[in-house]
Design goal:
CATH architecture: 2-Layer Sandwich
Helix content: 25-40%
CATH superfamily: Lipoprotein like domain
Radius of gyration: 23 Å
Distance between the termini: 51 Å
CATH topology: Double Stranded RNA Binding Domain
Number of helices: 3
Shape: flat
Structural class: alpha+beta
Strand order of the largest sheet: 1-2-3-4
Number of domains: 1
Length: 157
């Protein structure tokens, strides 16, 4: 009986005490303001990235970040059928991000890539629509990864 209560007490102690681990909360207001975004590469991807990042920006902070984003889209054949007709394409989007935090004069860069595939349809217009939907989804993922990396960098200060 004493062993069971001691064991329960030890388990409760381990569960209730904190180890100092801090969960990064991505939903709190951002600690930086994106002042300038320069883009080069794929125009459509850059347009979507710029809009997503500017919408997430907070204009009331001291940390001002200048971004330079270079995007590259690689389209490759993923599958062919027996008749040697293309049935799937693979698209890989690579974003090289260079940042500069103005008050601290900290500079750095990071690279993010994202890939996916889409099916070729009988109708060409449907194939283009599939490609456009994939690019939109990959670009949204890239924007959220860029935002998360910038949050981690801003939290270091």
């Amino acid at each position: 009986m004493i062993k069971k209560s001691a064991l329960i007490l030890i388990i409760i102690t381990f569960v209730c005490t904190a180890c100092g681990f801090k969960v990064v909360n991505k939903n709190y207001p951002l600690k930086f303001d994106i002042v300038n975004i320069e883009t080069s590469g794929e125009n459509r991807i850059n347009f979507l990235l710029r809009n997503k990042l500017i919408n997430n920006s907070n204009n009331n902070n001291n940390n001002q970040i200048d971004l330079k984003i270079e995007t590259l889209k690689e389209k490759q054949i993923k599958e062919k059928n027996i008749k040697n007709e293309i049935t799937k394409y693979k698209i890989k989007i690579i974003a090289n991000v260079t940042y500069q935090i103005t008050p601290m004069q900290k500079k750095g860069n990071f690279s993010i890539s994202n890939s996916g595939s889409y099916d070729v349809n009988i109708k060409y217009s449907q194939t283009i629509k599939n490609e456009k939907n994939l690019i939109n989804s990959l670009t949204e993922n890239l924007a959220s990864e860029i935002k998360n990396n910038l949050i981690n960098i801003a939290d270091d200060f």
